[in-house]
Design goal:
Strand order of the largest sheet: 7-6-8-9-10-11-12
Helix content: 40-55%
Shape: elongated
Number of strands: 12
CATH architecture of the largest domain: 3-Layer(aba) Sandwich
CATH topology of the largest domain: Rossmann fold
Radius of gyration: 24 Å
CATH superfamily of the largest domain: Response regulator
CATH class of the largest domain: Alpha Beta
Structural class: alpha/beta
């Protein structure tokens, strides 16, 4: 071999060896499997909060971590398959958001991969963790407990419309805590001296039927129970209330921002940020069993005065004074 050819071959070998070694020295980028009962269109703000929590822990999507998304679009029956698909891809952490059904699907899909959930009800009663302080397995997360606030929402709404005697409530029977929601509302109604009509909907055709029932029953106010499916149909529900001039109360701030009259409940954006911080801690080596389930620390009480004026309502000063945000 000529000297010039030998030098070229040696140089090429060094390049190949250096490239191979560099690749071997760089650990594979961790992958987060993110599944939700909701849809991407109605999850923009909370998804941003999740990524904020991740970044606070030192992880940025596309830079040092990859996030794979799966969405059920309000169809809870799709969640087990979405969870199984993410588990089969070998994600490092499985994030289950959008309520109890998503959390349960993730829990059932793996006992090895760390699971971080965002739940609306008591995760101990739901069988997700052994206790809030010591989850005890591969599952932990953040709990919103929004479904436990239906009575409080009922009370707020009747303060706004004290002359209304018949209230309507929409509940999703496929949402795991729905039986508790109905029970709480039915207990609250006689205490507040009100009649209550509960309608149920878990898909679009049932939602249309629920709207028709409410329209024909003469209800004077509406409570939309906490449920991720309703979040995916937020615009439709707000439009129905506006068209029928129904004062309505909802669980999350996003409803009031988009034209709903009142929202009251835990800060969902803060809950998603908490999930992001936990995922970052797990990627750094902490175990879910050692991470206590986080509980809400921030609550949003929002009143949309523009909507109130459109409905011809005067919101009591006490409620305006208590609100965290008043939209004028």
């Amino acid at each position: 071999m000529r000297r010039r050819d030998f030098i070229k071959a040696a140089a090429a070998s060094v390049v190949v060896w250096s490239t191979t070694m560099a690749g071997a020295q760089q650990p594979a980028m961790p992958v987060i499997g993110f599944m939700s009962a909701r849809s991407p269109d109605d999850t923009v703000q909370v998804l941003n909060a999740f990524h904020k929590g991740l970044s606070e822990g030192g992880f940025v999507n596309g830079r040092n971590v990859t996030v794979e998304y799966r969405w059920a679009h309000g169809d809870y029956g799709r969640l087990p398959a979405l969870a199984a698909e993410l588990v089969q891809t070998g994600v490092n952490v499985l994030v289950a958001t959008g309520g109890d059904a998503s959390a349960r699907a993730a829990r059932d899909a793996t006992t090895v991969i760390p699971v971080v959930f965002n739940s609306g009800s008591d995760p101990v009663k739901a069988g997700l963790v052994q206790s809030l302080n010591r989850p005890g397995s591969n599952v932990t997360g953040s709990v919103i407990l929004s479904e436990a606030m239906e009575q409080k929402r009922f009370s707020i709404l009747q303060e706004v419309v004290p002359a209304v005697t018949i209230f309507g409530a929409i509940v999703n029977p496929n949402y795991p805590p729905s039986a508790n929601q109905v029970r709480d509302l039915e207990l609250a109604a006689p205490k507040l001296g009100r009649q209550l009509l509960v309608v149920k909907a878990s898909n679009d055709s049932e939602l249309d039927a629920a709207f028709a029932t409410l329209s024909g029953a003469g209800v004077g106010a509406l409570l939309v129970a906490s449920d991720p499916y309703f979040d995916t149909r937020r615009s439709r529900i707000i439009a129905f209330a506006a068209q029928n001039r129904l004062p309505a109360i909802y669980q999350f701030r996003e409803y009031a921002i988009e034209g709903g009259l009142i929202s009251y409940g835990p800060s969902i954006t803060d809950a998603y940020r908490q999930v992001g911080t936990y995922v970052a801690r797990i990627l750094k080596g902490e175990k879910p069993a050692d991470l206590p389930v986080l509980q809400p620390t921030k609550f949003d009480f929002v009143i949309n005065l523009k909507t109130a004026k459109t409905l011809g309502l005067v919101v009591p000063f006490g409620l305006l004074n208590a609100a965290d945000e008043v939209i004028e």
